[in-house]
């Protein structure tokens, strides 16, 4: 089945472009088998002198000369049929390739070659195969004039830039998947930097569960965390507000029904204080989901009034439980970003403007850091932000271009419908299905694509698959790639750092690339790792600071108010010299407990006469 080396004396076709000085060793092999998607090439692993050339390696691209066109293929397997190596004579090998497309020369002299996906003329038996030329390799990954950015270089040839069509990548959503430690966050940071440069009108909201992206985008980013977030409770829908009240546990239907009835009354009282509990019906009627301000005090008042009604005596336990939940949430210092405002006012414009950077003032990226936020409220906040992102893009009529980037996306959109928070899943699904029509885009970053909702993943048209070791995760990616490039994914478990396989609408064809190297100080998480590095000898853990963060309770104001007098903290109201300047008190000789003013030895005992 093998052809003799001496039989291949050159390329007897019109595609001859070799220099006269080149010898026939450049002709590497001949086609001996071909079907609709793959072909087998007969070649030699060594030259006539017995030296191993190493010209055939897995992952390389080759070109099959067919006269007017050149078929492009990817090497995915090589081997010897007898599984034996001979030191006497040449060793014949079989090279298995996957057919990708074909390259043809342009009609105009000197113009770039043109690459087409698919095969119109299949290789014939005996067709000559050789390593692809650099000019043809550039044509394979050429984006045909589409708006593109360079994110790295080809693994096949470092001299050729790896370009992606940025508009198609964003508009049709993208996903970056890879196991821990392969450089996903670095790739995301690089992609965001390139996108901001290419699309200055783009606003980006990053859902950052590890607090690592703000330091990697210092000149573009505004950081929002649990201390600086201002998201009033009245902007939450009923389901989202209930998630906060019930702390992620299963809700009580009776309490939800009571909230659905009473929240519109509280909103109506805020808008029309003199209207009482009369609720208007008509076009301007309020519902529990309408983002209109109301006071928690009014809501509690409505609950009290309903508990006092004679016909509601059977509902009093439910209403009392609901009141307790609301009071507990409003007093919880961890929910300060929702209930901190003492003066309830319509601040929706400031809130949306700050979060979604309208106007952006040169900083179009908002990094929402969630590491210090209670886990039971993260789902609700993500649901609110995703819903607002879609609504803003929808009602701006295309003037506002938004990218919502979900780091660790399997947290919000798990494959199991019983897990996660349904409103968050629905909000992100709506962006995935309809967002590109209105300028709202979705970026998904995850290390476990097998645990991600397949509906969300199927809407991503461009994938950057980095190293994946889990078989289930690899199967998910194989189901998303075209059949003509399935062999490329055989490298998923063995790719190096910063390497990825890109496929989908954002690239010309399936491409194995290596991302550009970012400066060390711009790699996400670097600054935090330096701060938390092994402590120096003699340093100890600051337990006081840790406990303060754990409690998350603001310190009381230590400074005196302008209209108050400075008094001695050791005196009490009622003392004769309470308002006088503090003077040194004479301490008793006895061993009194000065904290309470009591003598421990005599506390609770009747005085004895000498």
Please characterize this protein's 3D structure.
- This protein has 610 residues and is an alpha/beta fold.
- The protein has helices at residues 134-140, 166-171, 184-198, 238-245, 253-271, 296-308, 316-331, 336-339, 348-356, 375-395, 422-438, 454-458, 471-480, 526-531, 543-551, and strands at residues 29-34, 38-44, 61-65, 69-79, 92-104, 114-117, 128-131, 148-154, 161-165, 174-177, 202-208, 221-224, 365-369, 401-407, 440-446, 462-465, 499-504, 511-515.
- The protein starts with 28 loop residues before the first strand and ends in a 59-residue tail after the last helix.
- Mean pLDDT is 78; it is low at 1-25, 557-569 and 585-605.
In short:
By secondary structure, the protein is of the alpha/beta class. It has helices at 134-140, 166-171, 184-198, 238-245, 253-271, 296-308, 316-331, 336-339, 348-356, 375-395, 422-438, 454-458, 471-480, 526-531, 543-551; strands at 29-34, 38-44, 61-65, 69-79, 92-104, 114-117, 128-131, 148-154, 161-165, 174-177, 202-208, 221-224, 365-369, 401-407, 440-446, 462-465, 499-504, 511-515.
Helical coverage, percent range: 25-40%
Mean pLDDT across the residues is 78
* Number of strand elements: 18
Question: Terminal Cα separation, in Å?
Answer: 123 Å
Q: In terms of per-residue confidence, which ranges show pLDDT below 50 for 5 or more consecutive residues? A: 1-25, 557-569, 585-605
Largest β-sheet summary: 11 strands, mixed
Shape: elongated
What is the structural class?
A: alpha/beta
Residue share in β-strands: 15-25%
Report the total helices. 15
What is the rounded Rg? 35 Å
In spatial order, strands of the major sheet run 9-8-18-17-16-10-15-14-11-13-12
